[in-house]
């Protein structure tokens, strides 16, 4: 039996804790309350081949195709083959997935060849999974530390030996035989994001400081349809899967001109098409017209979105909804193998913080919950054989030297990333972003200060990765690379800064 610290309380961290807690001493640490994080906000569902008209092979093909040729076949095969049984375990655990005629109901989302997205509460899948896992965790032999921020990993030449936390009682060091990062993504790099405020890339930044390799950071997925309002609330892709259409300011449908699959094209294509139309409209939003779905089905299938829109004064059963792209998901992260191992002894990473290359250059819709489920289970099982050393008492890590230059506010980082390292990129904009980010410094004693320092560290890494990849692939689109997408040519220079206007 070994000591394991898991950092993060989304689907990845909770799944790993429940699984590893059967055989190891587990402490689960989370920056906020257990229900914090991105999992609860997942609307569309979880993709898995669980019906007679579907197959693991079809799911593999769709995932690799969406990944624009950069998906790792071994990782994708593990994801799609092991997903159905693990989703079955969620059913047994009590997740109330929606059913039709006694069978699991399935939604359709972009770039899926069949209906395979399983959902709960209509559009509240993440919340249903999250609350069910939390209930199970509270009954499990797992120590829980809430409101404890990951300040850094405790590492030496022999590997990672614990974590340093900042909590209500100040700094605390936890020793461990292994640390599993499940800290989620870094959506707060951008001024417009569907991610919650806690998504500040803490695990990625700490892993990088400990010497772990980060890869594919240039691949940032922008969700096509966030509400064009403060906070950028998400409007699920499943709405388009059920028949909603995108319209410009004149009420004209434009996606059929951008891609043969129209509104169900891969997310990167739809998001760029929307951004291009917005630029031609001087930043005005485009509209999602969900009225073809029918009022009764809209309210029944998407109750959470209906309530959110009504709170913003929009009745989408009677009028189109103004939407805009927003930063949504990081395909890159801490480089791992298919069992969550980072290459640093004692350090694992799973979920959005990690990069198994299962998503390639563009994540297939509703594969994120599945990724967290599959690879957290794999990492927890790997601990049985991989942890072969005992932790030594950990001392305090030395403070990192502060950068020189002007002290930066988080909003400055977000603005630079949106304008220069967003949906459309070119060398001039990237180099300008790099110059600004290099000249800034961040740091301080508070959790908010440490989060901003993590964001600045990651912003530099993302920008460097985007500069290094000179050709377009998936979510990374270089306007200066001779791309075939005609709508890409409208977004050059100052025009990029007008997207979106919210």
- The CATH class designation of the largest domain is Alpha Beta
Instruction: Give the overall shape, derived from the CA principal axes.
Output: globular
Helix content: 25-40%
The CATH superfamily of the largest domain turns out to be FAD/NAD(P)-binding domain
Structural class, from secondary structure content?
A: alpha/beta
Show unreliable segments: 388-402, 486-502
Estimate the mean pLDDT confidence: 91
> How many beta strands in the DSSP annotation?
22
Order of neighbouring strands in the sheet with most strands: 8-2-1-12-19
> Which architecture of the largest domain per CATH?
3-Layer(bba) Sandwich
CATH topology of the largest domain: FAD/NAD(P)-binding domain
Largest sheet descriptor? 5 strands, parallel
Q: How far apart lie the N and C ends?
A: 52 Å
Number of contiguous helices: 14
Radius of gyration: 22 Å
Strand residues, percent: 15-25%
How many domain modules? 3
Family: Belongs to the FAD-dependent oxidoreductase 2 family. NadB subfamily.
Subcellular location: Cytoplasm
GO molecular function: L-aspartate oxidase activity
Protein name: L-aspartate oxidase
């Amino acid at each position: 039996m070994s000591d394991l610290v898991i950092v993060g309380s989304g689907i990845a961290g909770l799944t790993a804790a429940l699984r590893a807690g059967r055989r190891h001493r587990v402490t689960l640490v989370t920056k906020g309350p257990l229900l914090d994080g991105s999992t609860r906000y997942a609307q569309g569902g979880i993709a898995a081949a669980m019906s007679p008209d579907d197959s693991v092979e079809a799911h593999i093909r769709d995932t690799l195709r969406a990944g624009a040729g950069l998906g790792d076949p071994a990782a994708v095969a593990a994801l799609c083959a092991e997903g159905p049984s693990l989703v079955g375990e969620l059913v047994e655990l009590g997740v109330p997935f929606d059913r039709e005629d006694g069978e699991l109901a399935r939604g359709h989302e972009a770039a899926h060849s069949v209906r395979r997205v399983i959902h709960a509460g209509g559009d509240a899948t993440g919340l249903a999974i999250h609350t069910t896992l939390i209930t199970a965790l509270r009954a499990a032999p797992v120590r829980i530390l809430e409101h404890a921020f990951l300040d850094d990993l405790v590492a030496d030449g022999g590997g990672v030996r614990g974590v340093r936390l900042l909590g209500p009682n100040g700094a605390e060091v936890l020793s461990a035989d292994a640390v599993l990062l499940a800290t989620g993504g870094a959506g707060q790099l951008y001024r417009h994001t569907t991610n919650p405020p806690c998504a500040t890339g803490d695990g990625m930044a700490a892993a990088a400081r400990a010497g772990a390799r980060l890869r594919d950071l240039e691949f940032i997925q922008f969700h096509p349809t966030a509400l064009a309002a403060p906070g950028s609330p998400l409007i699920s892709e499943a709405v388009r899967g059920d028949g909603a259409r995108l319209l410009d300011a004149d009420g004209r449908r434009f996606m059929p001109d951008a891609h043969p699959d129209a509104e169900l094209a891969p997310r990167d294509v739809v998001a760029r098409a929307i951004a291009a139309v917005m630029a031609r409209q001087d930043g005005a939003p485009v509209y999602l017209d969900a009225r073809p779905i029918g009022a009764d089905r809209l309210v029944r299938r998407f109750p959470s979105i209906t309530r959110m829109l009504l709170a913003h004064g929009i009745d989408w059963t009677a009028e189109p909804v103004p939407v805009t792209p927003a930063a949504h998901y990081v395909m890159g992260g801490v480089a791992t193998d298919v069992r969550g191992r980072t290459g640093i002894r004692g350090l694992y990473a799973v979920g959005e913080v990690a990069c198994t290359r299962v998503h390639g250059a563009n994540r297939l819709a509703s594969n994120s919950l599945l990724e967290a489920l599959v690879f957290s289970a794999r990492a927890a099982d790997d601990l049985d054989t991989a942890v072969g050393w005992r932790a030594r008492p950990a001392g305090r890590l030395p403070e990192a030297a502060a950068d020189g230059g002007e002290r930066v506010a988080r909003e400055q980082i977000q603005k630079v990333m949106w304008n220069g390292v967003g949906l459309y990129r070119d060398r001039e904009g990237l180099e300008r972003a790099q110059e600004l980010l290099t000249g800034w410094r961040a740091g301080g004693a508070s959790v908010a200060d440490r989060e901003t320092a993590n964001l600045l560290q990651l912003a530099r890494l993302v920008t460097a990765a985007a500069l290094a990849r000179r050709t377009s692939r998936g979510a990374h689109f270089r306007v200066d690379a001779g791309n075939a997408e005609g709508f890409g040519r409208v977004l050059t220079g100052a025009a990029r800064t007008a997207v979106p206007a919210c």
